[in-house]
Amino acid sequence: MQKKGMLVVISGPAGVGKGTLCRALLAQSTNLDYSVSVTTRASRPGETDGKEYFFRSKEEFQKMIENGELLEWAEFLGNFYGTPRFHVEAMLNQGKTIILEIDIQGGKQVKNLYSEGGVFIFIVPPSFTVLSNRLRGRGTESEEVIQNRLARAHEELENVKDYDYVVENNDLKEAVEKLKSIIVAENCSTKRVVFFSKEE
Amino acid sequence: MQKKGMLVVISGPAGVGKGTLCRALLAQSTNLDYSVSVTTRASRPGETDGKEYFFRSKEEFQKMIENGELLEWAEFLGNFYGTPRFHVEAMLNQGKTIILEIDIQGGKQVKNLYSEGGVFIFIVPPSFTVLSNRLRGRGTESEEVIQNRLARAHEELENVKDYDYVVENNDLKEAVEKLKSIIVAENCSTKRVVFFSKEE
């Protein structure tokens, strides 16, 4: 019996390094696939439709939203970006493990659709002590700026409770190892394992 | 703040190879500790009291039950096996990750006490043919005992649903890697991560 795939959602505050983490994870793993997003921005030289992005017009994108064809979507600098449901579901049905790197708002939308089958990982910056020491160590920010940054980070961390795992992005190599372990462990999770029959 | 330890319960049918797996896991990990069981069975050549098991008489074992000194205990083929409660709890309070290798009945008892904090892993054989060959390969059990164990293994597989993870013991190295990944992943689990306080 063919095993169904797994959707791994990697999210976290802007600037936490989730893009770098995901690229390192994909580079080291042969059995993972990146989810390809739909965008309304123009393709750049060298980009291929269906590889870096699915390039669509704003009208087409709007129709995809209306038809429920997007797992999540967002506007950024006048362009739209989204995750096409058909693409993700096709890969899941092929038994693939798909990495979906998105911001916190997008993560919330996906959670509503895949709360059962998805694996939700939240990337956090190193602890506040470390962050605070780094900021103060620089000596370039005022205490007010530092306090504001810490307060905002606290707010963003409130979202952690909706995720299955939290990975601190302190050391890149260590964080990638943790992501790989989470994927291996989830594949051993009782809720995902299909058993051989008694007759075997 | 000191992190509380993690109790990793590794269980599965007799002869599935959980002992070999656990020894390999412990040999490769510096941050894991083995929970040593108490047993009334006779020690086999090469076994040392307090290392593989605490070897005790049936009278001594009975007293431990009466005094609530066992986290779980069971009778198996005329002998008693149990886990000394204070030993495990002391290690957990020290923040250690403890590997508890026990049979399925024992797993159930521990589950009742540690359903929140414990990690429950069920080891399954690749197939019953392999399990049967392994039991016979030992050369220490009679055919009747082997048949009883196989029948029981079928029943025991029904218990998988009470466990968090299932690891097939086909290739030792691969199975050990899975166990290690599960421990790493569980340490990233949102429910286990203690966040730094706002005051930090």
Structural summary, described in words:
The structure is a homodimer of 200-residue chains. In chain A, 42% of the residues lie in helices and 22% in strands. Chain A is built from 7 helices and 9 strands, in the order E-H-E-E-E-H-E-E-H-E-H-E-H-H-E-H. Chain A has 200 residues and is α/β, with parallel strands linked by helices. In chain A, helix 1 crosses helix 7 (172-188). The longest helix of chain A is centred in the last third of the chain and has 17 residues, at 172-188. The relative contact order of chain A is 0.20. Chain A starts with 5 loop residues before the first strand and ends in a 12-residue tail after the last helix. The radius of gyration of chain A is 19 Å and the shape is globular. Chain A has a 5-stranded parallel sheet, sandwiched between helices. At the A-B interface, strand 9 and helix 7 of A face strand 8, strand 9 and helix 7 of B.
Spell out the blueprint of helices and strands.
The structure is a homodimer of 200-residue chains.
Chain A: E1 6-11, H1 18-28, E2 32-34, E3 37-39, E4 53-55, H2 58-66, E5 70-76, E6 79-84, H3 85-93, E7 97-101, H4 104-114, E8 119-124, H5 128-138, H6 143-157, E9 165-168, H7 172-188
Parallel strand pairs in A: 1-7, 1-8, 2-7, 3-4, 8-9
Antiparallel strand pairs in A: 3-6, 5-6
Largest β-sheet summary of chain A: 5 strands, parallel
> What share of the residues of chain A lie within helices?
40-55%
Q: What is the CATH level 1 assignment of chain A? A: Alpha Beta
CATH topology name of chain A, in short, is Rossmann fold
State the helix count of chain A.
7
Q: N- to C-terminal separation of chain A?
A: 13 Å
By CATH, the architecture of chain A is named: 3-Layer(aba) Sandwich
Q: What is the SS-derived class of chain A?
A: alpha/beta
Strand content of chain A: 15-25%
Provide the number of structural domains of chain A: 1
What is the approximate shape of chain A? globular
User: What multimeric state do the chains show?
Assistant: homodimer
Query: Radius of gyration of chain A from the CA trace?
Result: 19 Å
Order of helices and strands of chain A: EHEEEHEEHEHEHHEH
What's the name of the CATH homologous superfamily of chain A?
P-loop containing nucleotide triphosphate hydrolases
